[in-house]
Write a structure and sequence with these properties.
Length: 559
């Protein structure tokens, strides 16, 4: 088996994503995640370019992976030994250094304003200086594929200048992201035919045509042996090749699984989903549900025909076992569902129902009737479980809502600035005890976080004997949709919650009033979390003949 080397540039190229700015502690945390996964190279940033990157290299953790500093080739007219930008990169004292240089004649003469010969000299002398200083040298061949199309001979001269000077790797970059996979494969083969060994070539693709992963694989097929990319495909514009997709493809899919070894071991793949979601958590982003391998919907089977087949053999509609990458299979519920979907989904929530049980039809009828009113259980699995348990009489009565109130005040503060303040009052009943909770939605800086935030804080402020079970809950996402237009518009709210163990669950609420819809979803979120604790005693059970949506309707009656 041949060795493929995986090079991560999340901390440098990924940081060029609009809206992304890692702190030094965050970069250290991500570097440790990458190292534990088994990446071969971690590009930490550009020392000297900004204080955060410089601080990271000063405090960078010791890693098994080769820590790499990024910079640029020396300027024309200055020796490599006296170039201050190059010196800042070398002073990071990383075992490897990756220097970017132009390989497209247009950029050399226009952007740099130097001759083609001067650019070749800059490449050669910069790489030779790194090698002389005992560093592993990488040359980042910027705009290589566009440069090859414009002036093949010169682009190849740049590659060979770096290799001759001692570069361990020359990384062919599709900087603009417009080269298609078939072109990448053909051009890489031409580079190798020119005398450049494939085991000294890397590939760096951008995702502007949604082909970054495919382009990287095409380059591997053509002979390169290093792949560069980022976690979750972060990067400038449309992003880079997504290592979270590439890694399981290389380890699980043929012909790659049998032909190549990487630093990532197959057993480490179970960490992919947690790592992907940890990065989103650091960035305060909502994970992409349809992300390959790791998305919440990557192994979701909605159609009844699919779910029926999945029950017999998961390979009928799954290309890999979700457990291999740390993910899980989901059978969503919707008004398209059949009893196969329903039984599988109930089994996953710990509810055993025999085939043909009348409860199945009753649950399906409730799902269809409520979806007709605007609910959706496709993406609100926790609310679906609560609905099913109510129908089957398996729903403990943890608490009741007597009433709630939300107020929003717009006023001037002590500095004369116009501010808004949201306040919520929630009255709950726990074992007959009335509990009144009041909360404002101000954050640590005194900014108003809105009425739903105030409601969430008030609801979770005091639940009596259940309080310790929800202390680690937090609201992580809030989605609103108007399901009908005009004067009879209905608002649907889906809330994603998370606990201290990293579990996430989604709940739904529907009302003509957005605050009321939000509160219903919040109540479901708290109730589902309580369901994960040891089950209540039988004396607390709801009567089996209770109407399936009586509890939530009663809970909101005082609103």
């Amino acid at each position: 088996m041949e060795r493929l080397y995986l090079y991560d540039t999340t901390l440098r190229d990924g940081q060029q994503t609009q809206g992304v700015q890692f702190s030094t502690p965050e970069k250290i945390r991500i570097a440790r995640m990458l190292d534990e996964l088994g990446l071969d190279y971690i590009e930490g940033g550009w020392p000297g370019a900004n204080p955060t990157d410089s601080a990271f290299f000063d405090a960078a953790p010791k890693t098994r992976a080769t820590m790499t500093a990024f910079g640029m080739t020396k300027r024309a007219g200055v020796s490599a030994e006296n170039d201050d930008v190059l010196a800042a990169v070398m002073n990071a004292r990383t075992p490897a250094v990756c220097l970017v240089g132009k390989t497209h004649d247009f950029h050399v003469t226009t952007a740099l304003g130097i001759t083609l010969e001067e650019n070749l000299d800059n490449i050669s002398r910069s790489v030779a200086h790194m090698v002389a200083e005992g560093r592993e040298a990488l040359f980042d061949a910027e705009h290589f594929f566009d440069g090859w199309k414009a002036n093949r001979e010169y682009a190849l001269e740049c590659v060979h200048a770096a290799l001759t000077a001692g570069a361990r790797w020359v990384v062919l970059c599709d900087t603009n992201g417009g080269t298609l996979p078939v072109e990448i494969g053909n051009i890489v083969r031409d580079v190798i035919a020119s005398g450049a060994a494939g085991d000294r070539l890397g590939i760096h693709t951008h995702n502007d045509t949604a082909n970054a992963v495919a382009g990287s694989l095409a380059a591997v097929d053509a002979g390169v042996r290093q792949i560069q990319g980022t976690l979750n495909g972060l990067g400038e514009r449309c992003g880079n090749a997504n290592l979270i997709t590439l890694i399981p493809t290389l380890l699980l899919k043929e012909p790659y699984a049998s032909a190549y070894q990487t630093g990532v071991k197959r057993e480490a793949l179970v960490n992919l989903t947690p790592i992907s979601r940890q990065l989103d958590d650091i960035l305060n982003r909502v994970p992409v549900r349809q992300a390959p391998f790791v998305g919440a919907s990557a192994f979701a089977h909605k159609a009844g025909l699919h779910a029926s087949a999945i029950l017999k053999d998961p390979s009928t509609y799954e290309h890999v076992d979700p457990a291999l990458v740390g993910n899980e299979r989901i059978i969503p519920m919707s008004n398209q569902a059949g009893q196969s979907n329903l039984r599988r989904r109930l089994e996953e929530t710990g509810i055993a129902v025999a085939k043909g049980d009348p409860a199945l039809a009753a649950i399906l009828a409730q799902v269809k009737e409520r979806e007709d009113r605007g609910y959706t259980y496709d993406s609100a699995q926790a609310s679906f479980e609560l609905l099913a348990r109510r129908v089957m009489g398996q729903m403990p009565n943890f608490f009741d809502i007597e009433r709630y109130r939300v107020t929003i005040e717009r006023r001037k503060n002590a500095k004369g600035q116009v501010v808004t303040v949201s306040e919520a009052v929630v009255v709950t009943l726990v074992d007959g005890e009335k509990i009144l909770s009041v909360s404002e939605s101000l954050d640590d800086q005194g900014n108003d976080r809105g009425p739903v935030n105030a409601l969430s804080k008030a609801l979770a402020k005091d639940l009596g004997k259940y309080q310790c079970q929800i202390d680690d809950m937090r609201l992580v996402d809030f989605k609103v949709r108007i399901t009908q237009g005009g004067t009879e518009a209905v608002t649907r709210v889906i809330i994603d919650s998370e606990d201290g163990e990293g579990r996430r669950w989604s709940t739904v609420g529907v009302s003509a009033n957005i605050v009321d819809a939000s509160f219903e979803a919040l109540v479901d979120a708290v109730t589902w979390r309580l369901m994960q604790a040891p089950r209540a005693q039988a004396s607390d059970q709801v009567a089996p003949d209770q109407a399936p949506d009586q509890a939530p309707d009663q809970a909101l009656a005082g609103a």
